[in-house]
């Protein structure tokens, strides 16, 4: 992250604090969140997309403190579950600044979102249209909605993360006509206000052509809605998914370039379709929080394993693993890592950083060159773990989830505490 650096003595310093000092006080494993870096990424999106609404996608990482930072920086918040909505409301966010997603929102969840006055409910199925119609009829309240549509784009990313090709669970297909039908039904439902179309094509995307094709298809539907239903939808959300650099091979775009590209496409298409440009919004998650956090581990054991070809691989076991970062095991994601608490002159050896779970796939960093003298007690930092690590963490093997420590200007604050064994036992009723 931008304020992280190493001293001559090899100490990794984040937010003005040596990681070793944080560890002395808070132990490992721990997520360290650089508040200035987080805020400056949020601001960079808000500034580059000044004529858009920018929703931070809380699924990447959400806590009460982070929801407040987002609000202070002028962003809105995308939540995708009742739990995330609870955190957002607890943080004191204006409900009108919250977008609520999900492919299977229950009646009680929708009831609560409508009652809270959530700004946008992103409707994902015909069942949900009926649920909202009956909730608004019962309560006399209004539901403000958008329609999640599927643009049929194959974003070039891991199959499990791509969401806008046809064969998947989210949204209404444009190609099949379901999207237009959903617009028709929402428009007809009393008490339901339809504000626009919503598209999200996937995550960790570098090739902006995917966004452009999706924007064109969604705008074409937007124009069709005007022509066939006489309805000028005031808004359109183009989703998130902007990739970040996990390794030196990754070459992410900048918020300014992304904004420019989207504006160009939208303006050109609107002109050629003869429709007014709707108010646009986006929903970046990873690109804001991903680079702002690192995970710090303590090395527990170092083992040399001889491979079939006779080569040796060094396995470095740390005190966390797939319970705090499932992404390597689940998506074959690439991370790097660095020695954090001292300097080493030892030659680099190719190492694999693994966790302490009972599973061979419990890999944190598949391949990294680390000093040959790495030993138990050394600290390792894995950068870029802000997105979808803590938020996808688990208690596998009854692991205790690590804390999130926010650092800024040489001061540290625990914004999510470490779980305790009491937390684990609290739900186990014996
Ligand atoms: N908006 C919607 C409707 C989404 O579904 C998502 C992510 C986002 C915004 C934010 O996408 P981002 O800017 O963070 O890429 N667990 C996977 C990623 C799943 C993304 C789910 N939806 C991973 O660890 O890579």
From TrEMBL:
Keywords: Amino-acid biosynthesis, Decarboxylase, Lyase, Lysine biosynthesis, Pyridoxal phosphate. The modification N6-(pyridoxal phosphate)lysine is found at residue 59. The active site is at 358 (proton donor). This is Diaminopimelate decarboxylase. PANTHER family: DIAMINOPIMELATE DECARBOXYLASE, GROUP IV DECARBOXYLASE. Residues 36-290 form the Orn/DAP/Arg decarboxylase 2 N-terminal domain. It catalyses: meso-2,6-diaminopimelate + H(+) = L-lysine + CO2. It comes from Nocardioides faecalis. It is an enzyme of class 4 (lyase). The keyword Transmembrane helix does not apply. Pfam families: Orn_Arg_deC_N (PF02784). The gene is lysA. Specifically catalyzes the decarboxylation of meso-diaminopimelate (meso-DAP) to L-lysine. Pyridoxal 5'-phosphate binds at residues 241, 283-286, 388. HAMAP family: LysA. Coiled coil: none annotated. Homodimer. SUPFAM superfamilies: Alanine racemase C-terminal domain-like, PLP-binding barrel. One of its GO terms (molecular function) is diaminopimelate decarboxylase activity. Substrate binds at residues 286, 327, 331, 359, 388. GO terms for biological process: lysine biosynthetic process via diaminopimelate. Its cofactor is pyridoxal 5'-phosphate. Belongs to the Orn/Lys/Arg decarboxylase class-II family. LysA subfamily.
């Amino acid at each position: 992250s931008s304020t992280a650096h190493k001293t001559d003595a090899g100490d990794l310093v984040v937010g003005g604090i040596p990681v070793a000092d944080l560890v002395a006080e808070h132990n490992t494993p721990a997520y360290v969140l650089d508040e200035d870096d987080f805020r400056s990424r949020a601001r960079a999106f808000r500034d580059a997309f000044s004529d858009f609404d920018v929703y931070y996608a809380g699924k990447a990482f959400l806590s009460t403190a982070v929801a407040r930072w987002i609000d202070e920086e002028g962003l809105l918040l995308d939540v995708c579950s009742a739990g995330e909505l609870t955190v957002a409301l607890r943080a004191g966010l204006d409900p009108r600044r919250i977008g609520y997603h999900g492919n299977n929102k229950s009646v009680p969840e929708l009831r609560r979102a409508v009652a809270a006055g959530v700004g946008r409910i992103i409707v994902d199925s015909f069942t949900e249209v009926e649920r909202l119609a009956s909730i608004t009829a019962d309560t006399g309240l209004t539901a403000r909605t958008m329609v999640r549509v599927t643009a049929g784009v194959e974003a070039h990313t891991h199959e499990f993360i791509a969401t806008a090709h046809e064969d998947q669970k989210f949204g209404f297909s444009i190609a099949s006509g379901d999207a237009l039908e959903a617009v028709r039904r929402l428009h007809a439902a009393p008490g339901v206000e339809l504000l626009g179309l919503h598209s999200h094509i996937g995550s960790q995307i570098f090739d902006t052509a995917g966004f452009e094709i999706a924007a064109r298809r969604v705008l074409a539907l937007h124009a069709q809605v005007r022509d066939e239903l006489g309805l000028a939808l005031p808004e359109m959300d183009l989703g998130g998914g902007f990739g970040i650099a996990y390794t030196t091979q990754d070459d992410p775009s900048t918020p300014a370039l992304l904004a420019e590209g989207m504006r160009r496409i939208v303006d050109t298409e609107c002109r050629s379709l003869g429709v007014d440009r709707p108010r646009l919004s986006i929903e970046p998650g990873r690109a804001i929080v991903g680079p702002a956090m690192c995970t710090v581990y303590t090395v527990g054991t170092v083992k040399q394993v001889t491979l079939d070809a006779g080569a040796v691989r060094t396995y470095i076991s740390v005190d966390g693993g797939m319970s705090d970062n499932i992404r390597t095991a689940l998506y074959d994601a690439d991370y790097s890592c660095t020695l954090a608490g001292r300097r080493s002159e030892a030659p680099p050896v190719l190492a694999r950083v693994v966790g302490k779970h009972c599973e061979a796939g419990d890999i944190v960093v598949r391949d990294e060159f680390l000093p040959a003298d790495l030993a138990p007690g050394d600290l390792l930092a894995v950068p870029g773990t802000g997105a979808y690590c803590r938020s996808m963490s688990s208690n596998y093997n009854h692991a205790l989830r690590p804390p999130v420590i926010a650092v800024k200007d040489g001061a540290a604050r625990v914004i999510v505490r470490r779980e305790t064994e009491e937390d684990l036992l609290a739900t186990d009723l014996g």
